[in-house]
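To fix ideas, we give here one paired sequence and structure record:
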Amino acid sequence: MLSEFEHQGFGESSASPIIIAGGDGEVLPRLTREALCDLLRRLPRDELDLALRERVIRAVSLPGVVFHVACGEWGLRLARARGLGIIGYAETVDLLAAARAVHGRTLLQAATGGLARAWPMFSASRRLTPEQGFGLLLAGCAIALAGAVLRPATFLTLMAALSGGFFLGVVALRVLCLLPPVARQAEAEPPELDDADLPVYSVLVPLFREVSVLGQLTGALRRLRYPADKLDIKLILEEEDVLMQRAVAGLRPDPRVEVIVVPAGLPQTKPRALNFALQFCRGTLVTIYDAEDIPERDQLLKAARRFAAAPAELACLQAQLSFYNPNENWLTRQFAAEYATLFGVLLKVLANHRLPLPLGGTSNHFRMDVLRSVGGWDPYNVTEDADLGLRLARFGYDTEMLDSFTHEEANTRLGNWLRQRARWLKGFLMTWFVHMREPLVFMREVGPSGFWTAQALTLGIFASALLHPLCMVATLVAYVLHPEVPKGAGLAVLLLAGLNFLVLVAGYAVSIALTRRALLARGRVNWLTLATMPVYWMLMSAAAWLALWQFIASPFHWNKTEHGLSSARPLNRKRSRRTG
């Protein structure tokens, strides 16, 4: 069934062939969609994949000679460069529509189940393996038995010791970020690349109910500095999102931009849409931008230069994310401070130590061949970015931070922020279960330090947010309401009390110190923001409890974040990197 976008007549082809100029005096018959459908039906799967990427379709095979149909200017140039025999031409929009009509189900199945078939242990399509389910049941029984057998004081002491030790390790990772940076071997300066040497760059932009920021998005994409004939932009729409399709159909035509309509299906997630569009990409490098993103104009050029100078093991570059409305209200200031710490300090240190990075959901740049070889994104994981960052590390690839910024819209409304944060925290828990299916294998692949980093940045973040108010109450009861040391308290109890107090105080102190350093680097320290960070952490706890419920009740549901709520006008004013 044709989508609303196609019914609107955007790029609709004539019912009968017409003659067009092919260049150099050449004329070619233009194929209808029906003719393209017939050609695509006859292609084996490997040739179909190649045709969708290169826009050249084998049409006729005779002894000693093969004739092709070229689709769009890109396909025409490629076919001529290879000296292929061309007997027909088709518009790109007709190729995309024909591919959906003939192979839409097959392409959707590949986008949805490709990772689960190729690497089932990396797919979140199952929340828990039977072994993990048995392990959780066994752990629950052990805790219940200990609670029944041991005295309450002894049981609580044991549980506090286990949790205190774990959270102290999480705090230690942040302490690492406060230490002087390690010295690394000087790397070659990325070369200046001529336009002819630049690779084709695919830009994936998934859109779902984003009409309010479409103008801002198209403006940001037009401002990108990259040769137009090597820029491959995909606007990715959902079949059911009729309003978005109509809005895109009304845009000014741009030869760099193609519209990919994802057939309806479940799970309806951003990674599923990305996987579907990936099958049509022709770039050797690829990046993702969200609907509200405003990347710096030279970001693609910087990434292309770095990849050209880097070894093949460098698979991903993560640009820094910042906000164009950091001072709109208290919530945006806290959100901006959090992003400044994550992208300006924490991820930089992890990359410097060659540790696994949980990627951000946007502005991560990949080598296309590597991305495809590791299975793309997991359509069942609602933090597909963090999961992919760990998977790249497990396959032996490196990720670095890119010295470039992408400006986003900070959430201005609490309910919107709560839904977004619950999705992230649910995804961290999901990612932890996925990569802990074979813990010893995981540790062997990333090393002990990488293994602990993954624990701290998935389960550690989730558990810290979940248990923070409980730990706070326990500390207040122990040290404020009952400050005296119980008579006969053993050394172990005293040490344990000190450990948990240390975790709480150190957690606050280190987090505030990191945030202060991050904000200083961006030129703006708001002491009220630092002083009220504990209130923000309590809000994260509420999101964590919501995430836990959703992990149980609706693990694959994608909480949609509304954009376009800010009163800021980012494209109408000069922006500085020093935001936050």
The first strand starts at residue 19 and ends at 23. The chain is about 55% helix and 15% strand. The mean pLDDT is 86.
